[in-house]
Amino acid sequence: MEELPRVLQQLWGFEGRSRPGPKPAFHISDIARAAVKLADAGGLAAVSMSKVAAELGFTTMSLYRYVDAKDDLYVVMLEHAFGEPPTLPQDHGWRARITAWAEAFRDGLRRHPWILQIPVQEPPLSPKQLAWMEAGLQAFDGTPLTPQDRLSAMLLVNIYIRGATQLTANMLTDPDAVQEADRLYTQRLTMLATTDRFPGIAATLELPPDEGFGGDFDTTEFGFGLDTVLDGIQSRIDRLRS
Description:
CATH topology of the largest domain: Tetracycline Repressor, domain 2
Largest sheet: none
Number of domains: 3
Mean pLDDT: 87
Shape: flat
CATH class of the largest domain: Mainly Alpha
CATH superfamily of the largest domain: Tetracycline Repressor, domain 2
């Protein structure tokens, strides 16, 4: 059987292969906290082996006793940033459970938007990441979905959350700035989107100020999109039950 990468051995608490040198001065979780702190302050571009080492007060070479490459550093960062999955409401149906899972996942991305910049090169294998996967799959307990259906449904929700959060990751957060940006955008759009050429856009401009392009995209539109995704999963469940 192929040996697990050293970073996974450490995250799972397995005894990794021994290396010569002094006794480790810190734990893999210390590296994770230092790297996440840098990323939260300056984005993923602010994270490097040398900067993480400096944050810990050690040399860059000392980090290589724990992580072999920057991709390993990303693994421990994700493990720390997401933490444990939420406790899902077992007294409710699958829809309430996967909604709670989705909202917790979205909240994690909002707290650490740099996560969206990390390339997804392979499925997760770290303890907490697998716990998130397991929670997402168990959200569909009580449905006729097959194991493959559950995996596909969970991935569909995951992809939607990532896409929706990515779209709003760089948007303004100050309420006054958002209001002014919306006003300016609507004003310019009204000048450009004439009824004869862009009738669909023009129709949205006639909606109340708190709807259409002036609505709360980060909340209202996210909920609409998630409900629509779940409606599709519900349709599949209904077909399997019929």
